[in-house]
């Protein structure tokens, strides 16, 4: 398949944009809800950590489980999960921790976020392929 050849299961451009927008709206609302449940209270930004780890798991599970369904990948993966996760906020929170002189907290938060995200993605992929062997 070339970049100019559409996949047979690909939705039209307008539908693709609509699916991503709708999913992004839902994902952003979910992230906001988590931020209300897990506010930053002087320690680790647990809300951001929670959405990024669960988002890494969810994205890996979705793209593995629904590899042949372009509409679901656009709605749930590109839309919901992308609206839900927030690595830009992770970067800002790391900068704030460093600016506040909390280097050990910043480094440990970065390591847990990155290593945990990779682990969550591996777990999501493995669970999605469970039973296919």
UniProtKB/TrEMBL annotation:
Pfam families in UniProt: CRCB
Main location: membrane
Catalysed transformations (reactions): fluoride(in) = fluoride(out)
Alphabetized UniProt keyword annotations: Cell membrane, Ion channel, Ion transport, Membrane, Transmembrane, Transmembrane helix, Transport
Membrane topology (UniProt): Multi-pass membrane protein
PANTHER family: FLUORIDE EXPORT PROTEIN 1-RELATED (PTHR28259)
Family (UniProt): Belongs to the fluoride channel Fluc/FEX (TC 1.A.43) family.
Role summary: Fluoride-specific ion channel. Important for reducing fluoride concentration in the cell, thus reducing its toxicity.
Protein name: Fluoride-specific ion channel FluC
